[in-house]
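Run folding on both entries below.
>entry_1
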Amino acid sequence: MNYTEEQTGYMVEEYKRKPSKITVARLAKELEKTEKSIIGKLSREGVYLRSVYKTKTGETPVTKVELVSEIAGAFDIDPGVLAGLEKAPKAVLKILRRASTGIED
């Protein structure tokens, strides 16, 4: 699906003015394109802002494996040495990470 320079300029300006899924849907309808196509073009133009998932508490999600890896890195050991630690409660792993790296949630 090709876009004219005029369409591209219009899309970019509209999206910059109000970056939201509603704007993408409106642009798709106006330009008779799919939402995926609009998102792809805005991404190639470097203006599309992907929504970032947050947990219920507003934190960026982190897996238990990532927490164990950070803890192992703080002690300069291979994460494999800590095999099984990822089965601990996430709250405990966060406490260990904070104590070993100083990283707060």
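>entry_2
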Amino acid sequence: MRLDFICVGTQKAATTTLHDILKKHPDIFLPQEKETHFFDIEERYELGLDWMNKTFFSGYNYEKIKGEFTPEYLFYEEVPERIHSVFGEDIKIIMVLRNPVSRAFSHYLMSKRRGYEKLSFKESILTERERMVNSPFERSHFSYINRGLYYNQILRYFKYFKNKNILILNYEKDIKENLKDTINKIQDFLKLDRVDLDINIKSNTAKRARLQLINDLLNNNSISKKGFKFFFRSKKLRNKIKIFIKRINRTKNIYNLDLIEKRRIFNLYFKEDVNKIEGLLDEDLSHWYNEL
């Protein structure tokens, strides 16, 4: 069992779209379930590589390379060392960085849509540090600002992997504006023959629930959720039903932040970190501020 590449995130930066496009490549095997969470969930990691292989890679059919996409991997401190200890320094790492303000707000809307978040965006940011230490659940779902502080997250991967084996993409420039060229860049990075893949895939586009009650029943640890599990014993079937219900219960997102608030958040929380990233990567990221 060996992986050739991992896309480690970041969350809310179109990694699902990249996954769904690259899954069509005849020389790439990706698990049917996009995120394995093998390296960030302690209980899964302790089960070992054989468990990972049997659970997620049983459909492997001798494609040239195997990979996985789990956006949580960029955020959690222990993950780079774990990946290195299992696969060594030659595994290829793909990162996608997104404007941290837009990423934070998109993350907030996702938590809101799932019924996890009850606070306003402003309140959630002000209480983030306090809530993150309460439980792993809150650290995962309420880490709006912390996930966008990319500098130390990138450094952790530079510590364990060769620079030439790390591909860092920019959501705004590489995914939104130049997706076709980016897919070719990824294929070159993975040393694959270029295949003309369908890029007209938009996965996990931002939506809000028409009826929040339905969302709460599907996502929260309620009696109805336990009943749903009782009547539909198959996890695969439950997931398909949930996806279908969520799809018909969604409408376009109408929430947004005004320009003044976006720039205030950028200057207060992210400006210093972005300046350090520019120095680290020798890249101009001024468009992150200019587009706000």
